[in-house]
Amino acid sequence: xxxxxxxxxxxxxxxxxxxxxxxxxxxxxxxxxxxxxxxxxxxxxxxxxxxxxxxxxxxxxxxxxxxxxxxxxxxxxxxxxxxxxxxxxxxxxxxxxxxxxxxxxxxxxxxxxxxxxxxxxxxxxxxxxxxxxxxxxxxxxxxxxxxxxxxxxxxxxxxxxxxxxxxxxxxxxxxxxxxxxxxxxxxxxxxxxxxxxxxxxxxxxxxxxxxxxxxxxxxxxxxxxxxxxxxxxxxxxxxxxxxxxxxxxxxxxxxxxxxxxxxxxxxxxxxxxxxxxxxxxxxxxxxxxxxxxxxxxxxxxxxxxxxxx
Length: 309
Fold this sequence. Notes:
This protein is of the alpha/beta class. It has helices at 12-23, 39-42, 60-64, 83-103, 139-151, 175-185, 204-216, 234-245, 255-262, 264-269, 278-283, 292-299, 302-308, and strands at residues 3-7, 27-32, 46-50, 68-71, 111-117, 128-129, 160-166, 168-170, 198-199, 201-203, 222-226, 232-233, 274-275. It has a domain at 3-170 and 200-227 and 274-288: 3-Layer(aba) Sandwich (Rossmann fold).
């Protein structure tokens, strides 16, 4: 039984991936700062390790002994960016990744999948973004560039390394949708700013299956945009969400209001990234959800709408 280590396993994506890999027959060790994890009681194949991964420590032995590592660790960006919190965003990603790589032993870990984000491209207007597009500028772009740089050092230890540049992950019980749904519930939903910026979405199911695809394709490594195959503008996303919920989507949040309330985070939310998952598609991955409306319809099924809205 192969051993999978997942950092950030108590987060929105980490919880979902932990279940997926347990269901696929892997032994899973989760790492994070929470004291406990609900899967510890549900599955004998799940081990929880509570640790601050920005610091060296005993937790690194679990990295050294893993066959596969999925590195998701990172403080949420969806908080007000004070200078102190920006440092926490940076350190939780870069220092964790550096500590993982330093713990690896040649010949043990087969593959490392380390997270990044399409924020590495910066604000790109209508440009079509591929994995070969150069990094942009700004705080998030700088964090992502350093994050990726720390991860690819694992190649020097013979570890096949894949960089996952996440778009906006859509799923139940958390993430971006959790912050959007209350406004639509009260008939006040709509796009951010002018709505013409591109919105790089991906369904959680596709994210998870694509992660497994990279792991189980033995020779697959490199950089991958984790975004849906058909990017949409923000206003189109809002309209699709409104149609699925049977709610209007005509109440935009003006750009100056977003920036005033959210500061630098607000400015980042108004950026445009028309990213395509070229390398995943070229490798043969077939997306479960080709368009954003089918993705939203799957997530917001009748049961979820009744409970959540």
